[in-house]
Write a structure and sequence with these properties.
The chain has about 210 residues and is mainly α. Helix content is about 75%, strand content about 0%. It contains 10 helices and no strands. The model has no long low-confidence stretch (mean pLDDT about 90).
Length: about 210
């Protein structure tokens, strides 16, 4: 793919993310995407096979990176404590979402809907997420780093904490006057997640020097 084609494709992606966030997927037309991206409508069909294909691409692209951030930490579990890996995993997820915050906002909202695409996401990416979270939590409990607790409940609470800033971004900015797009927020919010994790697992979780904070 030449540079011109890559630029056209990226323009479509950027326009779609912006419009899907402001108008919703069903409320956005292909013509609106083409107009905002300054491309021909035919380009959307050519590169993504229409609006549905574009949605599938965006959701899959987001979760590929999301799962990669999780897998990276899981692969290091044997050489580090489960506590360290879980902490770093949570931080990496927060940074990944921050770096892709507009896409994260759209995808997390879309996942709340019951559609064929989202059911496919559930059986692929989100089952992987569950597997890696479960494996780290089970290993931590086995090693005595965490208390024995209901893993599904912990995963549910962790996911809620991780995704909340993107599902509630308007509330954060307009009501609480918090700016979730700022890197400062990510760092402070990470500390609050560690506090929550500490109460969930009943063992102190301090930020270790091995945690790679930007």
């Amino acid at each position: 793919m030449n540079v011109s084609a890559m630029n056209t494709r990226q323009s479509i992606i950027d326009a779609a993310i912006s419009l899907f966030n402001s108008k919703g997927f069903t409320g956005t037309s292909v013509r609106e995407i083409a107009r905002k991206a300054k491309v021909n409508v035919a380009h959307i069909s050519y590169y993504f096979n229409g609006k549905g294909g574009l949605l599938e691409y965006l959701v899959s692209e987001f979760y590929e990176g999301y799962i990669a951030a999780i897998e990276k930490n899981y692969s290091l579990l044997t050489a580090h404590s489960a506590r360290e890996r879980l902490q770093q995993m949570l931080l990496d997820i927060l940074y990944y979402q921050h770096d892709n915050r507009q896409l994260a906002r759209f995808v997390h909202r879309e996942v709340t809907l019951d559609t064929i695409l989202i059911r496919e996401v559930m059986t692929t990416y989100l089952m992987k997420e569950k597997y890696y979270f479960t494996a780290i939590l089970e290993e931590g409990m086995k090693r005595g780093e965490f208390r024995n607790a209901s893993i599904p409940h912990i995963i549910l609470q962790l996911r809620s904490l991780l995704h909340m800033p993107y599902l509630q971004s308007q509330y954060l900015s307009e009501v609480l006057y918090i700016q979730p797009h700022e890197l400062f927020f990510v760092r402070q919010y990470y500390k609050e997640i560690l506090n929550s994790l500490n109460s969930l697992l009943a063992k102190p979780l301090k930020v270790r020097k091995t945690i790679l904070v930007r």
